[in-house]
Protein: Multiple C2 and transmembrane domain-containing protein 1
Amino acid sequence: MLDTCKLKSACNLPFVYNKKINTAGTSNADVPLADPGMYQLDITLRRGQSLAARDRGGTSDPYVKFKIGGKEVFRSKIIHKNLNPVWEEKACILVEHLREPLYIKVFDYDFGLQDDFMGSAFLDLTQLELNRPTDVTLTLKDPHYPDHYLGIILLSVILTPKEGEHRDVFQTQSLRLSDVHRKSQLWRGIVSITLIEGRDLKAMDSNGLSDPYVKFRLGHQKYKSKIMPKTLNPQWREQFDFHLYEERGGIIDITAWDKDAGKRDDFIGRCQVDLSALSREQTHKLELQLEEGEGHLVLLVTLTASATVSISDLSVNSLEDQKEREEILRRYSPLRIFHNLKDVGFLQVKVIRAEGLMVADVTGKSDPFCVVELNNDRLLTHTVYKNLNPEWNKIFTFNIKDIHSVLEVTVYDEDRDRSADFLGKVAIPLLSIQNGEQKAYVLKNKQLTGPTKGVIYLEIDVIFNAVKASLRTLIPKEQKYIEEENRLSKQLLLRNFIRMKRCVMVLVNAAYYVNSCFDWDSPPRSLAAFVLFLFVVWNFELYMIPLVLLLLLTWNYFLIISGKDNRQRDTVVEDMLEDEEEEDDKDDKDSEKKGFINKIYAIQEVCISVQNILDEVASFGERIKNTFNWTVPFLSWLAIVALCVFTVILYFIPLRYIVLVWGINKFTKKLRSPYAIDNNELLDFLSRVPSDVQVVQYQELKPDPSHSPCKRKKNNLG
Structure:
């Protein structure tokens, strides 16, 4: 039971429920409204009844906020999948003026900060009798739809006058409560799940087969597997992690579905995993029987302790503490290459302040808070109310599992009755960070294609082990749990088509060039090509293939360092991204005027698939180009090392031995490691190279000169 007040004598008062009211009652004559004294309001949040359903499954994940004078003073825990939640949480709130009512808001929690409003109510504090416990029944309303019934909230309250000596407690209470809110974002452990396979699943299609996929849910965290076409015994081999927010673990809900194009997917079955029954630091193989269906799912589940993820004030800086700094440097030193390969590095982010933010409220102000994300790790600051130039002064620390990750910092406005409003965002690749430099980052729009109003001041430090980072590059990239649903966009479809066309045209132009040599359009060129052809074929060895790629990378490198950079900024992609943003705004405004393509679900799904395939093909070609163009020097150097190794191996070792080793490894891999996740190292490497679209999104915008911070350099730690 949560107790947010340290005044134990007040918080432990017995409650005698001898009166019920509904937001209003008889006037309290004993309370002079002009009385400047301090009051303590003890609240017990009992339960909710018949709350509004906000999720697709006909349920909600409700939690309650208490506000006084526009400031949040208490936030309850989240009750998942329940329209009649029972909280039984206590809060002690110090109140200066009884004229300010207590504002109660109920929300449905959705991972991604788009919480749905479920209703609100006011409690008039002037109507409460002093020193008398009271049961309160509040009817929830939506100001925009006053006739809708949204359920009720049951409270128990007691109002007690306090002496002036307790005034100093009021000053620190909001900080303490915001600490409680922020600590609720920290997890106590990690559950690693590997979805291996399904066995004898139920046939849902007319051909006697299914196209199964699996959904996982742990609290607000969700994961969806890939679709395995036409099989009753799918082999997924997918690995992902969930965060544990509760000491006891929680329950993972698992549902299996059959994918149907053009209509609703068929339900195959469900099962659950109770994490409290599993021992920690041990891998458990689970064969789960599907309820309400047929077949089994095979999983590997491992519970581990939490990684180093924390929030603190600027006064608590681990890198400025000499002992902690030396320990971090030692942890990621070159001598500890094989110690915990998953722990690649350490990231510290100082979120200092923002300036000139967008106005989001009718008062001409905003209530900004900041969300810091690294892959699936997400932490947030407290809210600074009614301020366009907020100061947070917080330090966030993360463990780095992939040095090619992108740090995302997003500023939101905490809205009164709706989900948080977007104010701006920046995306910063970890490899582009300059350690110890305070910088003003211009906030971008949601698509990261252009500036929005305001700048945010950050100071970031990255320390990592380069060898571990290189090895992690050759394994599958971590998939984000929360990504926007793919939607059909004419502009996006056109952009992906043009991107793929440009990649294909490179091959077509190369083919035309070779054909022109055969046709002797230019005799000198054809003669040179003929001599080169004879020389290469006569002297060809297999090791020359990686050697040529190595020479190409080296040639581009010397062009860049000599100032003859042949890389051209892709203004075409940037212009199309801006056009897409305008198209998105237009689509939002005309959401009710949808065309024929959005009315026919099957056609829309096919178009989305084509759109995604075009994006994958174009991105593949752009990533190869950007590898040789040294867009990410770390990856290009890694490619040089790999090509050198392949050249040496192919030069000294006969090809038949290499093929023999490769075949033995492939044939025995299933026997040696039955539950290993298959991967392609080359594709995993290319997945870390940004496409042209990502290059534009990660590009840092020039700040206004008036916002230039005083840059200060520390010792370079990484």
